[in-house]
Amino acid sequence: MKLENKVAFVTGASSGMGHAIALKFAAEGATVIAVARRKEKLDALVADAAGLSGKIIAKSGDVADTAGITAVLDESFTEFGKIDILVNNAGVMDEMMPAAECSDELWEKVIDTNLKGPFVICRRWLNGMLDNGGGVIINTASVGGLFGARAGASYTASKFGVVGLTKNIAYMYAQKGVRCNAIAPGGVATEIGVGLKNPSAFGYERAQTGMGTNPRYGSADEIASIALFLASDDSSFVNGAVITADGGWSAY
């Protein structure tokens, strides 16, 4: 088992990639603190983990709520004494809004969830883990954080920020026993697209010009397998990397 006796903290765990990552980690022996806003979905996740080598513990939390998510982290450190693996996976889309149409409200919602939340969590985690010899951080970025038109302005900016945050932490704390990497998924069949309720016609049309080059959509489990690699000692020499997982979309 690759994660036996490890404690992992996974945000956005109620569905999609976070759900798959939590189950994959638990199957490899980890105790997984699964965090999301939807308690009923987390309860279902805990039930799905029955019989696995590890276990999943559900905790309600919103990564955009600085005080709230910090309290969840504090509680987790008190309960377990450590968090070996941190997975910043929670995220929201931005209705494909280009800069000229993006409201302050939408910008702040996306940045608070996709970038400020991971920063706050990383900061608290680093302060909790450095005395324990370090650990692993995995951030969910996106091909939208590598290229300019996979989404709207706020989502694109937030994911570029996640890539920068990942690389900064990786180098700054490399000699402190910390590894920090990111996964940049392409199109993955998850619930995140459900948030696309009233997209900008102009932004959507511009973003769609490159969709014909996408070979296929991935599965949440395929992304979870990459997360397991990054969380385990199999990737001991991988630090500051952004692993693109898009089926070859960006190779075009």
Proportion of β residues? 15-25%
CATH class: Alpha Beta
Q: Structural class from helices and strands?
A: alpha/beta
Quick one: overall form?
globular
Q: CATH topology, what is it called? A: Rossmann fold
By DSSP (H or I, 4+ residues per run), the number of helices equals: 7
Mean pLDDT: 95
Q: Which spans have pLDDT < 50 for at least 5 consecutive residues?
A: none
- Taking strands numbered 1, 2, ... along the chain, how are they ordered across the largest sheet? 3-2-1-4-5-6-7
Proportion of residues in helical segments: 40-55%
Based on DSSP secondary structure assignment, what is the total number of beta strands? 7
Q: What would you say the CATH architecture is? A: 3-Layer(aba) Sandwich
In CATH terms, the superfamily is NAD(P)-binding Rossmann-like Domain
Backbone CA Rg:
17 Å
String of helices and strands: EHEHEHEHEHEHHE
Tell me the distance between the termini: 37 Å
Largest sheet data: 7 strands, parallel
Whole-number total of structural domains: 1
Structure notes:
With 252 residues, the protein is α/β, with parallel strands linked by helices. The chain has a single domain (7-251), classed as Rossmann fold, CATH 3.40.50.720. Helix content is 41%, strand content 15%. It is built from 7 helices and 7 strands; from the N terminus they run βαβαβαβαβαβααβ. The chain has helices spanning 16-27, 39-48, 66-80, 104-129, 153-172, 201-208, 220-231; strands at residues 7-11, 31-36, 55-60, 85-88, 135-140, 178-185, 242-245.
